[in-house]
Here is the input.
Amino acid sequence: MKEMKMKKANSKIGQLLLLTALGLLLVATANAAAPGITGPTFNLVASPAFITQPDGEAVYSWGYGCDGTPSGYAPAAITNAFCNTMQVPGPTLIVTEGQAVTVNLTNGLPASAGNTSILFPGFQVSTICPASTTAGAPQQGLLTCEAVPGGTVTYTFTASSPGTHAYYSGTQGDLQVEMGLYGAIIVLPSTIPAACTTGIHASNLTAKGSTSLAHPGVAEADFRLAAAAYNHPAACYDREYLFQFSEMDLRIHREAAEQSTRACTACMAVATEPYVPAYFMVNGRSMPDLMDPNYALEYPHQPYNGNPHMHPGELTLIRVIGTGRWQHPFHEHGNHVRILARDGDLILSQSDPNSLAGPLLFTTTTTPGEAFDGIYYWTGKGLNWDPYGHNPASSAANAKLSCTPDPNGYNTSAPTAINYFEWCQDHNKPLQPTPVGDVAGGGPATLPDPNIFANGAWFGGSPYLGPDATVRAVGSTGTTPPSGTVANSPTGEAGFAFMWHSHNEREITTNNIFPGGMLMMMLVDSREFVIDESK
Here is the structure.
């Protein structure tokens, strides 16, 4: 994947204002992952509850949840997981290729809502749907077997295709999917290529034990579900995140709430057109709620967050599903995304099956009902200045780190070094013409005034990686972020923050309030910062 030297370097005025607003909102770190429940048997219930929005609105919704305690949670490194009887999106179902999967769905929706069901696109599904008029027995709907109010239906299928897949209601989809009845299935490959058991992430798990780093003796836990997304050596990854895009029309939810108490069965008549959504969500939350931790107690029905982190050089797997009615242009600043697969179909070259052939995209559009897997990375290659602030003449130990290029030009000979995977061609190149801190001499770039470019806890273009990043940029009395914040002091996390967001400007609002909606930050952290996805 070729990195871009200046991809979106000159942000629009609105984006600059957005960074300023983010600085006022974000003062803590909350990482993401791809959390879910393990099978192969899942007992789910469709239930009503209220989900919250950053503007204070509590929205009546429906969602799939756990009917009892699930058999397990993943990844194992997250220990505070829970699965309530309703959540939006529904529990992420994690299985392994070749497993026989059973999903038992109980209809806990109001009787006025009528039947409900689940579709599993891409899988050959069998259902137990007897022809019976007995109360509570399943009924055959237009698309699949449906659970009547209070009843249960069973779906079985073989997890035949690895990758990321969607599941959602197959009953009156214009209403039930809108109300929140959707979720994700992650199928892990049955065989992991040997090439994927070593590499960058393997070094991360031990690198923090070095006394030369800022956190001696502290190693990172492994929050991946597997070491590869597919049984292919080109599908290795070092970190992963799941993003489910959806929107909500508050009028529809209010009408459903008003009719939920009707003393009749299947009598709900909610107009789903015209469709005017005002809430735009990723994983059931809008920014800034989206950046709070997974399984935060303040979101009992919205357990999944979206706040990706990575270290330079890592292959970051993003699993993306469009689950609403609209397409959403998901824009990942910092680099393009290489598409690995769509709906579990790995995209390979016809002439060379060992090579990926998926497109390299500037914006990855989310299509309703469609899932894709993609790889994102960032190393600093092409910046034309040293993002680590190295200077051999400096007295600071971190500024004297060497950079020995491998055949591809990266510093991979020292896997415990802070600048592991540094692009050596830019080593020792200063950033500023008249810098302070460790970098001396002229430079190819001049930092803008930080009060104009950005303000606050996150800085989309933080000049250096490392524990003394702020000092290197502006000196000991400077104010370049992230200096001065509790969670992000210059001796802790300091790196690059790239906006990941919908490119439809209205979709980065919450009920027309900016900033909000489909917006998060990809934080590229120096390797001495321990990324803990459980917080």
Observations:
- The chain has a mean pLDDT of 82.
- The longest helix spans residues 13-25.
- The helical segments are 13-25, 173-179, 200-207, 250-259, 450-453, 469-474.
